[in-house]
Amino acid sequence: MAAVSRLPVPPEIVHEILRHLSLSSDCASCLQTDLAALSLSSKVLHAIATPYLYSSINLATLHDSSTYEHRLHSLLHTLSSSQLGEHVQRLQLSHSEESTERLWAKIAAHTQNLRILQGVETFFPTESDDDDDEDAMESARVLQGLRNLRKLVVHQEELPVRLSQLLGSWPELESLVIGDITADGSSFSDLSALGGGKLRELFFYDFDLDYATSEERDDAIASLPALETLEIEYSLGFSLSGVTRFLQQSPAHADRLKTLAFRQQLRRGNSAKAVAEVLEAAQGLRKLDLSLIRYGNDAMGDMPEEGLASQTLEELEWRGIYASHEAAASGNDEFVHLLVNSLRQLPRLARLTVGHEIRGRAGAEGEELQMFGALRTECDRAGSVLTEDAKEIGKNGKRVLLVIQEAGKDENWSERVTEMKRGVAGAEGTPMCAGGKDGEMPDGEGDGEKECELWET
Question: How far, in Å, are 318, 344, 389 from residue 393 at the CA level?
């Protein structure tokens, strides 16, 4: 790196060196040290290296938490007394430090080009005194002012403004996770504020608001812009019929959606026929993830006469959730039989994952044989496209890999939302990397996550 600062190389080559260094470095602290040294070595290199140095700031280091608040104040001083905040595109703070909640908005107010903000456990204070009300309103103003945000998680929040005011503030937003919120005066119709932007991914987790009629909830889904990914988890107001209406809005809606998840939803009101209608409407769908909760003798409702059919579906996940052992006592799930009878009409299907969960008691040994016996029988049938052995794929017409999950083994989506919000993975808070297409360097080629240890005044 010292040689770079002495050689009279063209600026374009220096840009390429810094871009490659930023994307390939496996030592965040070393990278920041090198960039800092370069920015101080000459006026030319200062102008080139500074945007790289400030583009992605990570204060959530695991080894120096004792100096976190000091570094946070130093960063605030640096950004508030200079124009360096215009270079900040990604800001990673520590979710476990109380000072983050107090200072995140003051720092973010100086980062008008911020694209990703992580590590803020609660955007809006939840206490009831006047000072906290003012702080919450100020936080809302700062968050609304970040017009270049690309990714955001709004979860477990009490909003001080109407939801539509927030959602209409980010025309560049590409990925949004939202749920478990309260917002006075807000309703499902506020989701219409998401239209007209660049949204590609939308995740609902435990999402509910006031509504005048039950139809209003599906109306909200149907009014969403065309998406690449739509995931709905434990948001019981939404139905598959609303998803079908969403897909039928335009050819762009039908073609653009590639991943659809409809998890921990009620089986009642979401029939097998409704699943078939979704597949028929989704002309570009590649992955479908379904898990429906069955109470008592809930059935799959109307069955599609022609079975399930899709010319594009490559991966299908099905998980039957039974609210009690009694709900599971009926034996084989009729949806499993529907899957068996539909395999020929899913010509691009390459992976079928099934599982089940019986709530209210521990242990489910032996029950998967009963639940998925029909699928295992199909694997053994001559001429079947299904197999449990990955080595058999491509032989004797076998093209679909069957994966049967252990009973009770399912992704903890609540933890996943928390990790997305904090920007860390696992209970220990291991920093998550965000390279490649998840971010961009100053020249627009993608970023890597970097720890920022420079604010040590």
Answer: 21, 16, 7
Looking up tokens 């590639």 gives 258
Token duo for residue 264: 């921990």
Nearest alpha carbon to residue 254 among 212, 231, 222: 222
Going by C-beta distance under 8 Å and a sequence separation of 6 or more, which residues neighbour residue 275?
240, 290, 304, 308
This model's pTM is above 0.70: yes
Closest by CA to 328, choosing from 292, 297, 303, 305, is 297
Residues 6+ apart with CB under 8 A from 394: none
pLDDT digits (tens, 9 = 90+) for 121-179: 999 977 656 566 888 999 999 999 999 999 999 999 999 999 999 999 999 999 999 99
For residue 53, report the phi and psi dihedrals to the nearest 5 degrees: -65, -40
Which of 343, 327, 317, 325 lies closest to 404 in space, CA to CA?
317
Please give the Cα distance from 327 to 274 (Å, whole number).
21
Nearest CA to 91 among 125, 62, 54, 123?
A: 54
Residues composing the chain: 457
Question: How sure is the predictor about 214, in pLDDT bands with cuts at 50, 70 and 90?
Answer: confident
Most confident of 55-59, 104-108, 360-364, 447-451: 104-108
Rg over alpha carbons for the chain, rounded to the nearest Å, is 25
Q: Tens digit of pLDDT for each residue in 23-48?
A: 766 655 566 667 777 676 666 676 77
> What pairs with residue 152 in β-bridges?
176
Report helix angle 98-108 to 68-80, nearest 10: 10
> Smallest Cα–Cα separation from 455: which of 45, 97, 40, 79?
79
Distances in Å between the Cα of 348 and the Cα atoms of 102, 344, 390 are 52, 10, 16
